[in-house]
Amino acid sequence: MFRTLTLTTALVGAALPAAAFTHTGEEVDPAVFEGREILPDPWIDDCDVERSLVPIEGKENLYRHTNPFPSTHSGLVLIQDEGALVIDAGNHCAAEWLRDEIRERFDVDITLAILKHAHFDHLAGSVVYAEAGAEIIAQENAIEPIIGEKMPVAEPTITFDEEMTVTFGDYEVLLHHEPAGNHSNSMIQVWIPALSAMQCTDVCQSQTVPYMDFLDFYYPGWIETLDWVIEKDPGVIEVGHYTPATTEDQIALRDYMTELYDQVIALHREGQPWDQLWRNVDAAEPYRDDWFGYELMRFANIQGMFRWVDNHRRGLW
Ligand SMILES: [Zn+2]
After folding, report:
1. Cα 190 to averaged position of ligand 1 atoms, centre (Å)
2. N or C: lower Cβ tally within 10 Å for the chain?
3. What Cα–Cα distance (Å) separates residue 90 from each residue in 46, 66, 96, 144, 189?
4. pLDDT of residue 34
5. The pLDDT of residue 291 is above 90
6. Which keywords does the record carry (predicted)?
């Protein structure tokens, strides 16, 4: 029904918004994708994973799509009579499952998908959403890597620069982009004030040590983003993996990351060579017993922060 309405609107050329939602973003000219090369999807046959769509406790109409811990994908899903808003996609099979599950349980289609950032593990199945007729939102910096990396993912139809609002059924959904970058230069924070719910993929953590060596890293913007999230004090924070998190978790994460930075830059300024420096960094130590991934991520985190500091500080010469 919704798709018919949308099509009719397009045919008569009226500047009316689509039926299920309105937004303050920019329409993407599909010509930018013309002739783009697309690589084969390496995860196309990766279907042997248990999936779920679980209600978020105490949050009406709000769900989370995911798979077993540590959850290779997860994202918020907002259900309204007019359709479903889905954040991120797992792989192709997971997205097909989610599309069918939403139809079966709620009798609606996915009408809007928000792609949090241009990393393939969060976008792989998004073509399924596009094929189902959903509009696709991404931050404008996501367009370049989607084309340049030849990603087999949905082509965004709506983009924005720093802030955008979507009115989806009864809900206002605020999309925020930190211009200094964080875990990507195309990251979106999604905030639903009426539900006090936040999607903060990969930047926020859930008593988990940040991933590996801070790939695609922008340290100052990461801290800015955490401050933005902490100021909102969300009742629930979906982090794109693992389990949902709290504001307190982000305060602890901010403490850890600033301590890591402070230690690495102090030792770097002392002139310690890498082999000596990393052995003297103990920022993760207080979280050894409580945070998932300490053994696997701790050393890589020091490497990533060292790389950032080494690339960005200048002394006297
Ligand atoms: Zn990522």
Report:
1. 15
2. C
3. 10, 8, 9, 21, 18
4. 97
5. yes
6. Hydrolase, Signal
**Distance of alpha carbon 282 from alpha carbon 264, whole angstroms:** 10
Spacing, Cα 121 to ligand 1 middle (Å): 7
What whole-number distance in Å separates Cα of residue 164 and Cα of residue 174? 6
- Diameter of the chain measured on Cα atoms: 69
The CATH topology of domain 2-246 is: Metallo-beta-lactamase; Chain A (3.60.15)
107 alpha carbon to ligand 1 midpoint, in Å?
A: 31
Ligand 1 centre distance from Cα of residue 214 (Å): 10
- The model's pLDDT over 63-72, given as tens digits with 9 standing for 90+, comes to 999 988 888 8
| Token code pair at residue 75 | 């994202």
Contacts of 110 (CB under 8 A, 6+ apart): 83, 84, 85, 86, 98, 99, 102, 129, 132, 134
**295 CB-contact burial (10 Å; exposed 0-12 / middle 13-18 / buried 19+):** exposed
179, 269 Cβ separation under 8 angstroms: no
Question: Predicted confidence band at 48 (pLDDT cuts at 50, 70, 90)?
Answer: confident
What distance in angstroms lies between residue 104's CA and the mean position of ligand 1's atoms? 30
Quote the ligand 1 centre to 219 CA distance (angstroms): 15
- Report the distance separating Cα 31 and Cα 127, nearest Å: 18
User: Cα(177)–Cα(200) distance, rounded to whole angstroms?
Assistant: 11
Distance in angstroms (rounded) separating the CA atoms of residues 154 and 164: 20
Q: Give one word for 97, left, alpha or beta, with left for phi > 0 and alpha for psi -120 to 50.
A: alpha
Q: 217: CA distance to ligand 1 center in Å?
A: 10
State how far the Cα of 291 lies from the Cα of 228, in Å rounded to an integer: 23
Distance CA 128, CA 41 (A): 12
Q: Which long-range contacts (CB under 8 A, 24 or more apart) does 295-298 make?
A: 296/209, 297/209, 297/210, 297/211, 297/212, 298/209
